Amino acid sequence: MKNFKLHVMIAVFIAIAELIGVKTFKLGPGTVVLLPMLYALIFGIFSAPRFAKLSNQQDMEDASSLLGITLMLLMARYGTLVGPTLPKIISASPALILQEFGNLGTCFLGVPLAVYFGLKRETIGAAHSIAREPNVALIGERYGLASAEGRGVMGVYISGTVFGTIFFGILSSFAAASGLFHPYALAMASGVGSASMMTAAVGSLTVMYPQMADQLAAFGAASNMLSGLDGLYMSLWMALPLSEWLYKKFYKIKYGVEPEKGDAQK
């Protein structure tokens, strides 16, 4: 908190990002929406020791410690939007609850791809979820973060932190431009348990549907809250066993033999 260099650098990045503003352009059938959050994220990446060296390792650790505070403020802001739209959220509650089963889709997509690309037990940690903080804690408690499963979940966690907001922002704008989904459905789908990813997706949607800005933010926040509450239990009772089962099936398809327990150390 006393790292004044870090605070000044962040303030400068935010000011530049806000001056650039929201940019939109056509890409195929969709509209790509570039938000100030994206610019600030890119500035942060290129300020790291591996690039421009504007920050050092201590600055990066200090910035990481502030993420929890900033996300808490962000979710408090979203909480003020949930109240006025509570009747609409309650009327959509069955859809909000059932859409949580969509989180299992990562198992069916991720496990076959991971095995195909040669991952062993890392597949379990990498493909059972989108690997946010609760999932990292779950894998750490179940297998240990030094295990192959731990390496898998941490790899996806880091990738999601760097690329997740960019991907979600672009994906939501393409989905909205397709006209196949209602904006409320897309806002609900953006709440996968990551505040930053949800914010990027809802931000793109509000640019395309400014008249629905508050409702979209409320649906996204409510969905994200539900994902945070029941997502861990979904992973524990359904996604992890499913990933284990799928891993064994696709491992045998690729290698012709059952996976051995020793694969966890390979």
Write up what this structure looks like.
This protein is mostly helical and 266 residues long. It has two domains: 1-68, no CATH class; 85-266, no CATH class. 71% of the residues lie in helices and 4% in strands. The protein has a two-stranded antiparallel sheet with strand order 1-2. The chain is globular.
Q: Which structural class is indicated by helix and strand composition?
A: mainly alpha
- Give Rg in angstroms: 20 Å
Number of helices: 12
Query: For the report, how would you describe the main beta sheet?
Result: 2 strands, antiparallel
Mean pLDDT: 80
Q: Please report which band the strand proportion falls in: under 5%, 5-15%, 15-25%, 25-35%, 35-45% or over 45%.
A: under 5%
Overall number of structural domains: 2
- Please mark out the parts with pLDDT under 50 across 5 or more consecutive residues, or reply none: none
Q: Can you list the strand order of the major beta sheet?
A: 1-2
Q: Report how far the terminal alpha carbons are from each other.
A: 41 Å
Question: What is the secondary structure topology, with strand pairs?
Answer:
Elements: H1 4-20, E1 23-27, E2 30-34, H2 36-46, H3 57-82, H4 86-91, H5 93-98, H6 105-116, H7 122-127, H8 133-142, H9 148-178, H10 183-190, H11 195-208, H12 213-255
Antiparallel strand pairs: 1-2
Helix pairs in contact: 1-2, 3-12, 6-12, 8-9, 9-11, 10-11, 10-12, 11-12
